[in-house]
Write a structure and sequence with these properties.
Length: 363
């Protein structure tokens, strides 16, 4: 089924005086999509979200929502609602009064409004909490109240400005799953702003990675992770080892000679930024490298190494290993399995790798 475009930005610019905050943004977000704007602080992701909401006007270009030009349309007249980082919960009101706040000008009867509030609270897992004082809620509960207050107005687009940043790690992970479930349940478009790449990978259908007011790459999470189109994107999404190399195009294949690893032959889609020639940077993720422990065999390519650093995480161990011909140690992540030892610093070992794990980036 072909996705239906809901939000379309064409050549959108935003200036604050001489500062160019958004630079010619072209972007389409589809109906029913969980979409994330990801990037470092100051990259323009919140400015873009506020532009969609109508809190910021565009300096140039066109913003369309549901086929209508949003030029001059105020936030309260747009089919959007926003959940802020601070939640903006009124502590002197009850949970039900907070959720009902957006309905104060709604023509429905008191009974109909109460029913809508109860349904919204049930939707976010807070059924029966209506009479509770808002100030007595936990951080996760306050976040759910903010979601219920936004959803009760039945917007076509829910805008989420780093809504989980104030929560502890365990609660963040729980709420990530809850937001995914909620988005599927209500079926409306969610647009999330976050600087947390793991959060974006877990929750999104598609992600736009932004740098300095521009979109560096727009793709689904797996493509972004496995096939970043630049070193900048690769550095921001997860952990990546970078090695010097040279590349030669051979038809629809690429011959690469990678420092410390040797020569290989890879597919053209392993150079997502375009077919490279000459000096290149080659990326390889820590989990696609492997320590070959004593007694183990493998049919993958092998190179010798010396353990330089060991960081034990319980379920995983991260090794930094020195490989001949490479100035900087390579990072390898290994699952801790029964019977598998944790190596000591200084141990001699072997590292296995596969040509299919390489990503070639312009140097």
């Amino acid at each position: 089924m072909t996705p239906k475009p809901l939000i379309q930005l064409s050549g959108v610019d935003k200036y604050y005086g001489d500062y160019h905050a958004l630079r010619g943004i072209d972007l389409t977000i589809n109906e029913g999509e969980f979409f994330s704007l990801l990037g470092p602080s100051g990259c323009g992701k919140t400015t873009l979200l506020r532009t969609i909401a109508g809190f910021e006007g565009v300096s140039g270009g066109t913003l369309m929502i549901d086929g209508k030009n949003m030029a001059g349309v105020s936030p309260n007249l747009r089919p959007t609602n926003m959940v802020f980082q601070s939640y903006a919960i009124f502590p002197h009101l009850s949970v039900a009064e907070n959720v009902a706040f957006g309905l104060r000008k709604d023509p429905r009867s008191k009974e109909e409004k109460a029913k809508a509030v109860a349904e919204a609270l049930e939707m976010v897992g807070l059924g029966g909490y209506g009479n509770r004082a808002a100030h007595a809620l936990s951080g996760g509960q306050r976040q759910r109240v903010a979601l219920a207050r936004a959803l009760i107005l039945k917007p076509k687009v829910l805008l989420l400005d780093e809504p989980l940043s104030a929560l502890d790690k365990k609660m963040r992970e729980l709420m990530q799953v809850e937001l995914i479930r909620l988005q599927r349940q209500v079926g409306i478009t969610f647009i999330l702003v976050t600087h947390d790449q793991e959060e974006a990978l877990v929750m999104s259908d598609r992600i736009a990675v932004m740098f300095e007011g521009e979109i560096g790459q727009l793709d689904d999470p797996e493509t972004l992770y496995r096939r970043p189109n630049s070193k900048r994107v690769a550095e921001f999404i997860g952990k990546m080892n970078f090695l010097d190399g040279t590349a030669t195009a051979e038809g629809n294949r690429i011959a690469v000679d990678v420092a410390g690893l040797g020569k290989g032959d890879i597919a053209a889609d392993q150079a997502p930024g375009g077919m490279p020639l000459g000096k290149v940077t080659v990326g390889i993720r820590p989990e696609t490298l492997a320590i070959v422990f004593e007694g183990e065999t493998t049919d993958r390519r092998i190179c010798d190494a010396v353990v330089d650093e060991v960081v034990y995480y319980g379920d995983m161990t991260y090794y930094d290993v020195k490989v001949p011909g490479v100035d900087k140690p390579l990072t390898i992540s290994m699952k801790n399995m029964i019977g598998r030892p944790v190596l000591d610093v200084g141990a001699l070992t072997r590292v296995a790798w596969d040509e299919r794990s390489l990503v070639v980036l312009a140097a």
